[in-house]
Design goal:
Shape: globular
Radius of gyration: 25 Å
Structural class: mainly beta
Protein backbone atom coordinates (compact mmCIF):
# COMPACT_ATOMS: atom_id res chain seq x y z
CA UNK A 1 0.00 0.00 0.00
CA UNK A 2 1.02 3.59 -0.48
CA UNK A 3 1.65 5.74 2.54
CA UNK A 4 0.15 9.20 2.25
CA UNK A 5 1.21 12.26 4.24
CA UNK A 6 -0.91 15.38 4.45
CA UNK A 7 0.74 18.75 3.97
CA UNK A 8 0.21 22.16 2.36
CA UNK A 9 0.82 22.88 -1.31
CA UNK A 10 2.69 25.95 -2.59
CA UNK A 11 -0.54 27.92 -2.94
CA UNK A 12 -2.05 26.95 0.39
CA UNK A 13 -4.06 24.05 -1.04
CA UNK A 14 -4.01 20.78 0.87
CA UNK A 15 -1.89 18.04 -0.59
CA UNK A 16 -1.13 14.37 -0.04
CA UNK A 17 2.52 13.39 -0.38
CA UNK A 18 3.34 9.79 -1.28
CA UNK A 19 7.04 8.98 -0.91
CA UNK A 20 8.12 6.79 -3.81
CA UNK A 21 9.50 3.36 -3.02
CA UNK A 22 10.80 0.65 -5.37
CA UNK A 23 7.76 -1.47 -4.54
CA UNK A 24 5.29 1.22 -5.62
CA UNK A 25 4.85 -0.25 -9.10
CA UNK A 26 1.10 -0.01 -9.55
CA UNK A 27 0.13 3.52 -8.63
CA UNK A 28 -3.06 3.19 -10.64
CA UNK A 29 -4.17 0.44 -8.24
CA UNK A 30 -3.96 2.56 -5.10
CA UNK A 31 -6.89 1.39 -3.02
CA UNK A 32 -10.26 -0.22 -3.53
CA UNK A 33 -12.63 0.83 -0.80
CA UNK A 34 -15.72 1.83 -2.76
CA UNK A 35 -13.72 4.81 -3.95
CA UNK A 36 -11.04 3.97 -6.48
CA UNK A 37 -7.90 5.68 -7.73
CA UNK A 38 -7.30 4.92 -11.41
CA UNK A 39 -4.99 6.13 -14.14
CA UNK A 40 -6.58 7.28 -17.38
CA UNK A 41 -5.74 9.30 -20.50
CA UNK A 42 -7.93 12.23 -19.56
CA UNK A 43 -11.48 13.40 -19.14
CA UNK A 44 -13.94 13.39 -16.30
CA UNK A 45 -15.73 10.06 -15.84
CA UNK A 46 -17.68 8.02 -13.34
CA UNK A 47 -16.26 4.76 -12.04
CA UNK A 48 -18.19 1.51 -11.98
CA UNK A 49 -19.64 2.27 -8.55
CA UNK A 50 -21.03 5.57 -9.80
CA UNK A 51 -18.63 7.81 -7.88
CA UNK A 52 -17.80 11.13 -9.48
CA UNK A 53 -14.14 11.37 -10.45
CA UNK A 54 -11.91 14.26 -11.41
CA UNK A 55 -9.05 14.65 -13.82
CA UNK A 56 -5.82 15.94 -12.28
CA UNK A 57 -3.07 17.59 -14.31
CA UNK A 58 0.56 16.91 -13.55
CA UNK A 59 3.12 19.61 -12.83
CA UNK A 60 6.82 18.85 -12.38
CA UNK A 61 8.42 19.99 -9.11
CA UNK A 62 12.02 20.04 -7.98
CA UNK A 63 12.58 16.94 -5.84
CA UNK A 64 15.29 18.68 -3.83
CA UNK A 65 12.77 21.20 -2.58
CA UNK A 66 10.54 18.45 -1.26
CA UNK A 67 12.73 16.99 1.42
CA UNK A 68 14.51 14.34 -0.55
CA UNK A 69 11.78 12.89 -2.77
CA UNK A 70 13.06 11.16 -5.86
CA UNK A 71 13.81 13.19 -9.01
CA UNK A 72 10.85 11.53 -10.77
CA UNK A 73 8.39 13.15 -8.38
CA UNK A 74 5.47 14.97 -9.94
CA UNK A 75 2.90 17.20 -8.27
CA UNK A 76 -0.72 16.48 -9.14
CA UNK A 77 -3.01 19.49 -8.65
CA UNK A 78 -6.61 18.38 -8.20
CA UNK A 79 -9.91 19.96 -7.29
CA UNK A 80 -12.09 18.48 -4.55
CA UNK A 81 -10.39 15.13 -4.55
CA UNK A 82 -10.65 12.52 -1.79
CA UNK A 83 -8.08 9.81 -1.21
CA UNK A 84 -8.06 7.16 1.51
CA UNK A 85 -4.71 5.92 2.72
CA UNK A 86 -4.30 2.57 4.40
CA UNK A 87 -4.61 3.74 7.99
CA UNK A 88 -6.94 6.65 8.35
CA UNK A 89 -9.49 8.91 6.70
CA UNK A 90 -8.02 11.94 4.97
CA UNK A 91 -9.12 14.44 2.36
CA UNK A 92 -6.75 16.40 0.16
CA UNK A 93 -6.70 18.74 -2.81
CA UNK A 94 -3.54 17.46 -4.43
CA UNK A 95 -1.22 14.50 -4.23
CA UNK A 96 2.45 14.03 -4.90
CA UNK A 97 3.63 10.85 -6.59
CA UNK A 98 6.00 9.64 -9.31
CA UNK A 99 4.19 9.31 -12.65
CA UNK A 100 4.80 9.89 -16.34
CA UNK A 101 3.96 13.46 -17.35
CA UNK A 102 1.95 12.24 -20.34
CA UNK A 103 -0.66 10.79 -18.02
CA UNK A 104 -3.44 12.15 -15.89
CA UNK A 105 -4.62 10.84 -12.58
CA UNK A 106 -8.28 10.26 -11.89
CA UNK A 107 -9.33 9.85 -8.27
CA UNK A 108 -12.78 8.93 -7.03
CA UNK A 109 -14.44 11.56 -4.86
CA UNK A 110 -15.93 10.19 -1.65
CA UNK A 111 -16.23 11.28 1.97
CA UNK A 112 -14.12 8.85 3.95
CA UNK A 113 -14.34 9.86 7.57
CA UNK A 114 -17.16 7.39 8.23
CA UNK A 115 -15.02 4.33 7.54
CA UNK A 116 -12.21 2.62 9.42
CA UNK A 117 -9.69 0.15 8.10
CA UNK A 118 -9.61 -3.30 9.62
CA UNK A 119 -7.14 -6.12 9.02
CA UNK A 120 -5.98 -9.16 10.87
CA UNK A 121 -4.03 -12.17 9.63
CA UNK A 122 -5.01 -15.78 10.28
CA UNK A 123 -2.68 -18.44 11.67
CA UNK A 124 -1.50 -20.73 8.86
CA UNK A 125 0.29 -23.07 11.24
CA UNK A 126 1.74 -23.17 14.73
CA UNK A 127 4.27 -25.55 16.26
CA UNK A 128 5.16 -26.31 19.88
CA UNK A 129 8.76 -27.48 20.22
CA UNK A 130 10.17 -29.19 23.29
CA UNK A 131 9.88 -31.98 25.80
CA UNK A 132 8.42 -32.59 29.23
CA UNK A 133 10.58 -29.96 30.92
CA UNK A 134 11.24 -26.37 29.76
CA UNK A 135 12.16 -24.87 26.40
CA UNK A 136 12.26 -21.30 25.19
CA UNK A 137 13.10 -19.71 21.83
CA UNK A 138 14.95 -16.40 21.70
CA UNK A 139 15.81 -16.19 18.02
CA UNK A 140 14.61 -16.92 14.49
CA UNK A 141 16.21 -16.70 11.07
CA UNK A 142 15.27 -17.70 7.57
CA UNK A 143 17.58 -20.51 6.48
CA UNK A 144 19.50 -19.87 3.28
CA UNK A 145 18.57 -23.37 2.04
CA UNK A 146 14.87 -22.91 2.82
CA UNK A 147 12.78 -23.16 5.96
CA UNK A 148 13.50 -21.60 9.32
CA UNK A 149 16.13 -21.75 12.06
CA UNK A 150 15.12 -21.17 15.68
CA UNK A 151 17.35 -21.07 18.74
CA UNK A 152 17.03 -20.80 22.51
CA UNK A 153 17.50 -23.28 25.32
CA UNK A 154 16.18 -26.57 26.67
CA UNK A 155 16.21 -28.61 29.87
CA UNK A 156 14.44 -31.64 28.34
CA UNK A 157 15.76 -34.91 26.97
CA UNK A 158 12.60 -36.26 25.38
CA UNK A 159 9.86 -35.21 22.96
CA UNK A 160 11.49 -33.16 20.22
CA UNK A 161 14.77 -32.96 22.18
CA UNK A 162 17.66 -35.39 22.02
CA UNK A 163 21.32 -35.17 22.93
CA UNK A 164 20.96 -33.08 26.08
CA UNK A 165 24.25 -32.88 27.99
CA UNK A 166 22.81 -33.21 31.50
CA UNK A 167 24.29 -31.32 34.40
CA UNK A 168 22.81 -30.32 37.72
CA UNK A 169 23.13 -26.53 38.11
CA UNK A 170 21.23 -25.61 36.07
CA UNK A 171 20.77 -28.20 33.28
CA UNK A 172 20.37 -25.75 30.39
CA UNK A 173 21.62 -26.58 26.91
CA UNK A 174 21.60 -24.20 24.00
CA UNK A 175 19.16 -25.57 21.43
CA UNK A 176 18.93 -25.06 17.67
CA UNK A 177 16.09 -26.46 15.53
CA UNK A 178 15.72 -26.43 11.73
CA UNK A 179 12.15 -26.45 10.41
CA UNK A 180 11.02 -26.78 6.83
CA UNK A 181 8.53 -24.36 5.30
CA UNK A 182 5.56 -26.30 6.75
CA UNK A 183 6.99 -26.57 10.32
CA UNK A 184 8.30 -30.15 10.11
CA UNK A 185 11.50 -30.62 12.10
CA UNK A 186 14.45 -31.38 9.79
CA UNK A 187 17.03 -31.54 12.56
CA UNK A 188 17.67 -30.34 16.10
CA UNK A 189 20.88 -29.93 18.08
CA UNK A 190 21.56 -29.62 21.81
CA UNK A 191 24.78 -27.72 22.41
CA UNK A 192 26.73 -27.34 25.64
CA UNK A 193 28.39 -29.09 28.52
CA UNK A 194 27.58 -30.00 32.10
CA UNK A 195 26.97 -26.43 33.21
CA UNK A 196 24.71 -23.81 31.59
CA UNK A 197 24.50 -22.69 27.96
CA UNK A 198 21.86 -20.58 26.23
CA UNK A 199 21.40 -19.34 22.67
CA UNK A 200 20.35 -15.73 22.21
CA UNK A 201 20.78 -15.34 18.45
CA UNK A 202 20.80 -17.36 15.23
CA UNK A 203 21.82 -16.36 11.70
CA UNK A 204 21.71 -18.40 8.52
CA UNK A 205 25.00 -18.64 6.62
CA UNK A 206 25.75 -18.69 2.91
CA UNK A 207 26.65 -22.41 2.97
CA UNK A 208 23.19 -23.43 4.24
CA UNK A 209 24.34 -23.73 7.83
CA UNK A 210 24.07 -21.24 10.67
CA UNK A 211 25.82 -19.28 13.38
CA UNK A 212 24.50 -19.43 16.93
CA UNK A 213 25.47 -16.91 19.62
CA UNK A 214 24.87 -16.91 23.36
CA UNK A 215 26.95 -17.76 26.41
CA UNK A 216 28.53 -20.75 28.13
CA UNK A 217 29.51 -21.65 31.70
CA UNK A 218 30.94 -25.04 30.74
CA UNK A 219 34.36 -26.22 29.67
CA UNK A 220 33.46 -29.72 28.57
CA UNK A 221 31.09 -31.40 26.13
CA UNK A 222 30.90 -29.15 23.08
CA UNK A 223 32.72 -26.30 24.85
CA UNK A 224 36.47 -25.68 24.94
CA UNK A 225 38.51 -22.62 25.83
CA UNK A 226 36.05 -21.08 28.30
CA UNK A 227 37.61 -18.63 30.72
CA UNK A 228 34.61 -18.43 33.08
CA UNK A 229 31.34 -17.23 31.58
CA UNK A 230 32.15 -16.51 27.96
CA UNK A 231 30.26 -15.32 24.93
CA UNK A 232 29.85 -18.46 22.85
CA UNK A 233 29.59 -18.79 19.07
CA UNK A 234 28.84 -22.10 17.35
CA UNK A 235 28.97 -22.78 13.62
CA UNK A 236 26.69 -25.58 12.39
CA UNK A 237 26.60 -27.17 8.94
CA UNK A 238 23.54 -27.51 6.68
CA UNK A 239 22.49 -30.76 8.42
CA UNK A 240 23.13 -29.45 11.94
CA UNK A 241 26.59 -30.92 12.44
CA UNK A 242 28.99 -29.05 14.71
CA UNK A 243 31.61 -27.36 12.52
CA UNK A 244 33.34 -25.12 15.06
CA UNK A 245 32.85 -23.35 18.38
CA UNK A 246 34.46 -20.24 19.79
CA UNK A 247 34.59 -18.97 23.38
CA UNK A 248 35.13 -15.21 23.41
CA UNK A 249 35.73 -12.95 26.39
CA UNK A 250 37.71 -12.58 29.58
CA UNK A 251 37.53 -13.58 33.22
CA UNK A 252 34.59 -11.49 34.42
CA UNK A 253 31.59 -12.54 32.34
CA UNK A 254 30.65 -11.99 28.71
CA UNK A 255 27.45 -12.60 26.74
CA UNK A 256 26.71 -12.75 23.02
CA UNK A 257 23.27 -11.43 22.09
CA UNK A 258 23.33 -10.79 18.32
CA UNK A 259 25.27 -12.19 15.38
CA UNK A 260 25.45 -11.75 11.61
CA UNK A 261 27.54 -13.33 8.88
CA UNK A 262 29.48 -10.70 6.93
CA UNK A 263 30.19 -10.69 3.17
CA UNK A 264 33.86 -11.58 3.75
CA UNK A 265 32.85 -14.93 5.24
CA UNK A 266 33.45 -13.80 8.81
CA UNK A 267 30.93 -12.59 11.34
CA UNK A 268 30.16 -9.76 13.74
CA UNK A 269 29.02 -10.37 17.31
CA UNK A 270 27.43 -7.94 19.75
CA UNK A 271 26.55 -8.30 23.42
CA UNK A 272 27.89 -7.22 26.79
CA UNK A 273 31.01 -7.67 28.87
CA UNK A 274 32.29 -7.09 32.37
CA UNK A 275 35.82 -8.15 31.41
CA UNK A 276 38.89 -6.12 30.58
CA UNK A 277 41.29 -8.95 29.79
CA UNK A 278 41.49 -11.93 27.44
CA UNK A 279 39.88 -10.94 24.14
CA UNK A 280 38.85 -7.53 25.49
CA UNK A 281 40.38 -4.15 26.03
CA UNK A 282 38.97 -0.71 26.71
CA UNK A 283 36.20 -1.53 29.18
CA UNK A 284 34.84 1.71 30.64
CA UNK A 285 33.44 0.55 33.98
CA UNK A 286 30.87 -1.79 35.49
CA UNK A 287 29.80 -3.35 32.21
CA UNK A 288 30.06 -2.33 28.57
CA UNK A 289 28.37 -3.11 25.33
CA UNK A 290 30.75 -5.17 23.22
CA UNK A 291 31.13 -5.58 19.47
CA UNK A 292 33.73 -7.87 17.92
CA UNK A 293 34.48 -8.61 14.26
CA UNK A 294 36.03 -11.95 13.34
CA UNK A 295 37.21 -13.36 10.03
CA UNK A 296 36.18 -16.70 8.51
CA UNK A 297 38.64 -18.53 10.79
CA UNK A 298 37.31 -16.74 13.89
CA UNK A 299 40.42 -14.60 14.24
CA UNK A 300 39.50 -11.31 15.89
CA UNK A 301 39.98 -8.43 13.45
CA UNK A 302 38.82 -5.72 15.85
CA UNK A 303 36.77 -5.28 18.99
CA UNK A 304 35.34 -2.32 20.87
CA UNK A 305 33.93 -1.89 24.34
CA UNK A 306 31.17 0.72 24.17
CA UNK A 307 29.80 2.59 27.15
CA UNK A 308 30.64 4.63 30.20
CA UNK A 309 31.28 4.19 33.91
CA UNK A 310 27.87 2.64 34.65
CA UNK A 311 26.27 -0.45 33.10
CA UNK A 312 25.73 -0.61 29.33
CA UNK A 313 24.77 -3.45 26.99
CA UNK A 314 24.05 -4.18 23.32
CA UNK A 315 21.15 -6.33 22.14
CA UNK A 316 21.32 -5.88 18.38
CA UNK A 317 23.79 -5.57 15.51
CA UNK A 318 23.33 -5.22 11.77
CA UNK A 319 25.84 -4.51 9.04
CA UNK A 320 24.65 -1.51 7.04
CA UNK A 321 24.65 -1.00 3.29
CA UNK A 322 27.91 1.00 3.40
CA UNK A 323 29.80 -1.72 5.29
CA UNK A 324 29.41 -0.10 8.70
CA UNK A 325 27.20 -1.23 11.57
CA UNK A 326 24.24 -0.14 13.64
CA UNK A 327 24.07 -1.44 17.21
CA UNK A 328 21.51 -0.82 19.92
CA UNK A 329 20.75 -1.67 23.53
CA UNK A 330 20.69 0.41 26.70
CA UNK A 331 22.90 2.63 28.82
CA UNK A 332 22.94 3.78 32.43
CA UNK A 333 26.01 5.96 31.79
CA UNK A 334 26.46 9.61 30.93
CA UNK A 335 30.17 9.65 30.21
CA UNK A 336 32.69 7.82 28.07
CA UNK A 337 30.98 7.01 24.77
CA UNK A 338 27.57 8.04 26.09
CA UNK A 339 26.21 11.56 25.61
CA UNK A 340 22.77 12.95 26.35
CA UNK A 341 21.52 10.46 28.91
CA UNK A 342 18.03 11.32 30.21
CA UNK A 343 18.45 9.69 33.63
CA UNK A 344 18.23 6.09 34.77
CA UNK A 345 18.22 3.64 31.89
CA UNK A 346 18.14 5.02 28.35
CA UNK A 347 17.65 3.25 25.05
CA UNK A 348 20.93 3.62 23.18
CA UNK A 349 21.80 3.39 19.48
CA UNK A 350 25.19 3.83 17.81
CA UNK A 351 26.29 4.08 14.20
CA UNK A 352 29.74 2.59 13.61
CA UNK A 353 32.02 2.61 10.58
CA UNK A 354 33.49 -0.52 8.98
CA UNK A 355 36.15 -0.84 11.71
CA UNK A 356 33.80 -0.20 14.61
CA UNK A 357 34.61 3.46 15.27
CA UNK A 358 31.67 5.53 16.48
CA UNK A 359 30.19 7.88 13.85
CA UNK A 360 27.29 8.98 16.04
CA UNK A 361 25.35 7.83 19.08
CA UNK A 362 21.96 8.73 20.46
CA UNK A 363 20.56 8.24 23.96
CA UNK A 364 16.80 8.10 23.73
CA UNK A 365 14.00 7.97 26.26
CA UNK A 366 12.91 9.91 29.29
CA UNK A 367 13.09 9.78 33.04
CA UNK A 368 11.86 6.17 33.20
CA UNK A 369 13.41 2.89 32.06
CA UNK A 370 13.92 2.66 28.28
CA UNK A 371 15.65 0.09 26.09
CA UNK A 372 16.14 -0.92 22.45
CA UNK A 373 16.10 -4.60 21.56
CA UNK A 374 16.44 -4.36 17.76
CA UNK A 375 17.82 -1.79 15.29
CA UNK A 376 17.66 -2.16 11.51
CA UNK A 377 18.61 -0.01 8.55
CA UNK A 378 15.58 1.03 6.51
CA UNK A 379 15.07 1.46 2.76
CA UNK A 380 15.50 5.24 3.03
CA UNK A 381 18.92 4.90 4.69
CA UNK A 382 17.56 5.63 8.16
CA UNK A 383 16.89 3.24 11.01
CA UNK A 384 13.94 1.62 12.74
CA UNK A 385 14.30 0.62 16.40
CA UNK A 386 12.01 -1.19 18.81
CA UNK A 387 12.11 -1.94 22.51
CA UNK A 388 10.26 -0.77 25.57
CA UNK A 389 9.71 2.47 27.45
CA UNK A 390 8.62 3.38 30.94
CA UNK A 391 8.86 7.10 30.25
CA UNK A 392 6.30 9.73 29.42
CA UNK A 393 8.67 12.63 28.82
CA UNK A 394 11.84 13.39 26.93
CA UNK A 395 11.63 11.59 23.56
CA UNK A 396 8.52 9.64 24.57
CA UNK A 397 4.91 10.72 24.22
CA UNK A 398 1.84 9.01 25.61
CA UNK A 399 2.83 6.14 27.83
CA UNK A 400 -0.35 4.12 28.31
CA UNK A 401 0.32 3.09 31.94
CA UNK A 402 2.41 5.34 34.18
CA UNK A 403 3.83 2.54 36.34
CA UNK A 404 4.41 -0.04 33.58
CA UNK A 405 5.99 -0.22 30.12
CA UNK A 406 4.86 0.29 26.55
CA UNK A 407 6.30 -1.23 23.43
CA UNK A 408 8.27 1.57 21.80
CA UNK A 409 9.00 2.15 18.11
CA UNK A 410 11.44 4.83 16.95
CA UNK A 411 12.34 5.96 13.42
CA UNK A 412 15.61 7.84 12.88
CA UNK A 413 17.09 9.36 9.77
CA UNK A 414 20.54 8.47 8.46
CA UNK A 415 22.34 10.75 10.94
CA UNK A 416 20.38 9.66 13.99
CA UNK A 417 17.78 12.43 14.20
CA UNK A 418 14.33 11.47 15.44
CA UNK A 419 11.72 11.39 12.66
CA UNK A 420 8.86 9.84 14.64
CA UNK A 421 8.22 7.62 17.63
CA UNK A 422 5.25 5.58 18.78
CA UNK A 423 4.32 4.09 22.16
CA UNK A 424 2.18 0.99 21.73
CA UNK A 425 0.19 -0.84 24.36
CA UNK A 426 -2.47 -0.53 26.99
CA UNK A 427 -2.88 -0.37 30.73
CA UNK A 428 -0.67 -3.38 31.48
CA UNK A 429 2.92 -4.18 30.46
CA UNK A 430 3.77 -4.29 26.74
CA UNK A 431 7.09 -5.00 25.03
CA UNK A 432 8.54 -5.00 21.49
CA UNK A 433 11.34 -7.48 20.88
CA UNK A 434 11.80 -7.65 17.11
CA UNK A 435 11.08 -5.64 13.96
CA UNK A 436 11.42 -6.01 10.19
CA UNK A 437 10.60 -3.61 7.40
CA UNK A 438 7.95 -4.98 5.08
CA UNK A 439 7.76 -4.78 1.29
CA UNK A 440 5.19 -1.95 1.49
CA UNK A 441 7.61 0.21 3.46
CA UNK A 442 5.87 -0.43 6.78
CA UNK A 443 7.02 -2.45 9.77
CA UNK A 444 6.09 -5.74 11.41
CA UNK A 445 6.80 -5.92 15.15
CA UNK A 446 6.67 -8.81 17.61
CA UNK A 447 6.70 -8.80 21.39
CA UNK A 448 4.33 -9.44 24.25
CA UNK A 449 1.37 -7.79 25.93
CA UNK A 450 -0.61 -8.09 29.11
CA UNK A 451 -3.11 -5.43 28.02
CA UNK A 452 -6.56 -5.67 26.53
CA UNK A 453 -7.23 -1.99 25.94
CA UNK A 454 -5.57 0.95 24.27
CA UNK A 455 -3.87 -0.42 21.14
CA UNK A 456 -4.50 -4.03 22.21
CA UNK A 457 -7.52 -6.23 21.70
CA UNK A 458 -8.07 -9.99 21.77
CA UNK A 459 -5.92 -10.86 24.78
CA UNK A 460 -6.30 -14.48 25.90
CA UNK A 461 -6.88 -13.82 29.58
CA UNK A 462 -6.11 -16.55 32.11
CA UNK A 463 -5.96 -17.15 35.83
CA UNK A 464 -2.15 -17.04 36.03
CA UNK A 465 -1.83 -13.45 34.86
CA UNK A 466 -2.39 -12.86 31.16
CA UNK A 467 0.43 -12.38 28.68
CA UNK A 468 0.10 -12.96 24.94
CA UNK A 469 2.53 -12.92 22.10
CA UNK A 470 1.72 -9.71 20.25
CA UNK A 471 2.23 -8.84 16.59
CA UNK A 472 1.71 -5.28 15.31
CA UNK A 473 1.80 -3.96 11.74
CA UNK A 474 2.61 -0.27 11.28
CA UNK A 475 2.71 1.72 8.08
CA UNK A 476 5.74 3.72 6.96
CA UNK A 477 5.13 6.60 9.39
CA UNK A 478 4.12 4.55 12.39
CA UNK A 479 0.33 4.45 12.11
CA UNK A 480 -1.24 1.23 13.36
CA UNK A 481 -2.63 -0.96 10.56
CA UNK A 482 -3.46 -4.07 12.54
CA UNK A 483 -2.51 -5.97 15.68
CA UNK A 484 -3.01 -9.55 16.79
CA UNK A 485 -2.75 -11.26 20.17
CA UNK A 486 -1.61 -14.87 20.01
CA UNK A 487 -1.72 -17.46 22.77
CA UNK A 488 -3.81 -19.22 25.38
CA UNK A 489 -4.66 -18.84 29.03
CA UNK A 490 -1.21 -19.31 30.57
CA UNK A 491 1.16 -16.88 28.90
CA UNK A 492 3.12 -16.44 25.68
CA UNK A 493 5.75 -14.13 24.23
CA UNK A 494 7.20 -13.50 20.76
CA UNK A 495 10.92 -12.77 20.72
CA UNK A 496 11.63 -12.73 16.98
CA UNK A 497 9.74 -12.23 13.71
CA UNK A 498 10.60 -12.51 10.04
CA UNK A 499 8.71 -11.35 6.96
CA UNK A 500 8.73 -14.38 4.65
CA UNK A 501 7.03 -13.01 1.53
CA UNK A 502 3.49 -12.55 0.20
CA UNK A 503 2.45 -10.70 3.34
CA UNK A 504 3.21 -13.68 5.55
CA UNK A 505 5.21 -13.68 8.79
CA UNK A 506 6.87 -16.25 11.04
CA UNK A 507 7.48 -15.59 14.72
CA UNK A 508 9.19 -17.49 17.52
CA UNK A 509 9.03 -17.34 21.30
CA UNK A 510 7.60 -19.38 24.15
CA UNK A 511 4.28 -20.69 25.40
CA UNK A 512 2.90 -22.13 28.64
CA UNK A 513 -0.56 -22.79 27.20
CA UNK A 514 -2.26 -25.71 25.48
CA UNK A 515 -5.47 -23.98 24.46
CA UNK A 516 -6.57 -20.94 22.47
CA UNK A 517 -4.15 -20.63 19.57
CA UNK A 518 -1.79 -23.23 21.05
CA UNK A 519 -1.90 -27.00 20.50
CA UNK A 520 0.68 -29.72 21.12
CA UNK A 521 2.44 -28.33 24.20
CA UNK A 522 4.81 -30.98 25.55
CA UNK A 523 5.13 -29.85 29.17
CA UNK A 524 5.67 -26.79 31.31
CA UNK A 525 7.01 -24.30 28.76
CA UNK A 526 7.59 -25.00 25.06
CA UNK A 527 9.27 -23.10 22.32
CA UNK A 528 6.57 -21.81 19.98
CA UNK A 529 6.71 -20.99 16.27
CA UNK A 530 3.75 -19.45 14.42
CA UNK A 531 3.21 -18.61 10.77
CA UNK A 532 0.68 -15.89 9.96
CA UNK A 533 -1.02 -15.55 6.59
CA UNK A 534 -1.71 -12.30 4.74
CA UNK A 535 -3.93 -9.79 6.49
CA UNK A 536 -7.46 -9.67 5.17
CA UNK A 537 -7.79 -5.95 4.63
CA UNK A 538 -11.19 -4.35 4.29
CA UNK A 539 -13.14 -1.30 5.24
CA UNK A 540 -15.89 -1.52 7.82
CA UNK A 541 -18.48 1.10 8.46
CA UNK A 542 -17.67 2.97 11.64
CA UNK A 543 -20.15 1.85 14.31
CA UNK A 544 -19.92 5.00 16.38
CA UNK A 545 -21.08 8.49 15.51
CA UNK A 546 -18.26 10.71 14.33
CA UNK A 547 -16.84 13.35 16.60
CA UNK A 548 -16.77 16.98 15.55
CA UNK A 549 -14.11 19.69 15.65
CA UNK A 550 -15.08 23.35 15.98
CA UNK A 551 -14.07 25.78 14.74
CA UNK A 552 -12.33 24.21 11.74
CA UNK A 553 -10.17 25.86 10.41
CA UNK A 554 -8.92 27.40 13.64
CA UNK A 555 -6.26 29.84 14.73
CA UNK A 556 -5.92 28.45 18.25
CA UNK A 557 -8.42 26.46 20.32
CA UNK A 558 -10.62 23.67 18.95
CA UNK A 559 -13.40 21.93 20.82
CA UNK A 560 -13.76 18.20 20.26
CA UNK A 561 -17.32 16.98 20.78
CA UNK A 562 -17.14 13.27 21.50
CA UNK A 563 -19.71 10.48 21.17
CA UNK A 564 -21.43 9.16 24.27
CA UNK A 565 -20.51 5.54 23.54
CA UNK A 566 -18.14 3.81 23.46
CA UNK A 567 -16.06 5.77 25.92
CA UNK A 568 -13.03 7.65 24.62
CA UNK A 569 -9.71 6.75 26.23
CA UNK A 570 -7.32 9.18 24.62
CA UNK A 571 -6.87 11.94 22.09
CA UNK A 572 -3.81 12.14 19.85
CA UNK A 573 -2.82 15.11 17.71
CA UNK A 574 -0.64 14.09 14.76
CA UNK A 575 1.28 16.31 12.39
CA UNK A 576 1.65 15.81 8.63
CA UNK A 577 4.37 13.16 9.06
CA UNK A 578 2.28 11.08 11.44
CA UNK A 579 4.34 12.16 14.44
CA UNK A 580 2.41 12.42 17.68
CA UNK A 581 2.78 15.98 18.95
CA UNK A 582 0.14 15.91 21.68
CA UNK A 583 -1.58 13.20 23.69
CA UNK A 584 -4.33 13.64 26.27
CA UNK A 585 -6.24 11.07 28.30
CA UNK A 586 -9.95 11.72 27.96
CA UNK A 587 -11.53 9.55 30.65
CA UNK A 588 -12.06 12.56 32.92
CA UNK A 589 -13.79 14.62 30.25
CA UNK A 590 -17.53 14.32 29.72
CA UNK A 591 -18.59 14.85 26.14
CA UNK A 592 -15.98 17.36 25.01
CA UNK A 593 -12.30 18.24 25.12
CA UNK A 594 -10.48 21.45 24.20
CA UNK A 595 -7.11 21.51 22.47
CA UNK A 596 -4.96 24.60 22.02
CA UNK A 597 -3.11 24.73 18.68
CA UNK A 598 -1.77 28.24 19.17
CA UNK A 599 1.81 27.00 19.46
CA UNK A 600 1.65 24.84 16.34
CA UNK A 601 2.69 25.84 12.83
CA UNK A 602 0.06 26.44 10.19
CA UNK A 603 -0.95 23.32 8.33
CA UNK A 604 -3.11 20.23 8.41
CA UNK A 605 -3.25 18.08 11.54
CA UNK A 606 -5.07 14.89 12.40
CA UNK A 607 -7.08 14.47 15.59
CA UNK A 608 -7.39 10.81 16.52
CA UNK A 609 -9.65 9.41 19.23
CA UNK A 610 -9.01 5.96 20.65
CA UNK A 611 -12.05 4.21 22.07
CA UNK A 612 -12.38 1.67 24.87
CA UNK A 613 -13.36 -1.06 22.39
CA UNK A 614 -10.01 -0.76 20.60
CA UNK A 615 -11.29 1.15 17.55
CA UNK A 616 -10.38 4.69 16.63
CA UNK A 617 -11.65 7.57 14.54
CA UNK A 618 -9.79 10.37 12.80
CA UNK A 619 -10.75 13.89 11.73
CA UNK A 620 -8.67 16.54 10.00
CA UNK A 621 -8.21 20.04 11.38
CA UNK A 622 -6.59 22.98 9.61
CA UNK A 623 -4.47 25.34 11.71
CA UNK A 624 -4.45 28.80 10.13
Amino acid sequence: MLRCDVGYGPHGNRRLEIPFQPTDQSLHRMLRTGAEAVERDGGTVDDEAGHEVYTCNLTHVDARAKGGLLPSTQLVHCTDVGVLDNTSSRMTDSIMMPMRTSRTLVIAHTLLTSAILSAQPAIEWQKCLGGSSTEYLNALSKATNGGYLVAGWTTSSNGDVSGHHGGTFPPYDAWVVKLDATSTIEWQKCLGGTNEERANAIAGTSDGGCLMAGFSWSNDGDVTGNSGVDAWVVRLGPAGGLVAQYCLGGLSGDIGRAIQETPDGGFVLAGSTASSDGDLSGNHGNGDGWIVKLDADAVIQWQHCLGGSAYDALWSVQQTSDGGYVVAGHSYSNDGDVIGQHGGKDAWVLRLNSTGAIQWQNCMGGSGEDEFTTALETLDGGFILVGSTGSNDGDVTFLHADTLTDAWVVKLNAVGDLQWQRSLGGSSGDFANSVHQTSDGGYIIAGSTGSNDGDVSGLHEGSTGPSDAWVVKLDAVGALEWQKCLGGTYGETANAIEAVGDGRYVLAGGTMSNDGDVTGNHGAVDGWVVKLGPAEVGVEEEPKSLFTLTPNPTSSIITITMPASPSVQEMLLLDATGRTIMAKPTTSHAGYLTVDLAGQESGVYLVQLRFADGTRAVERVVKE
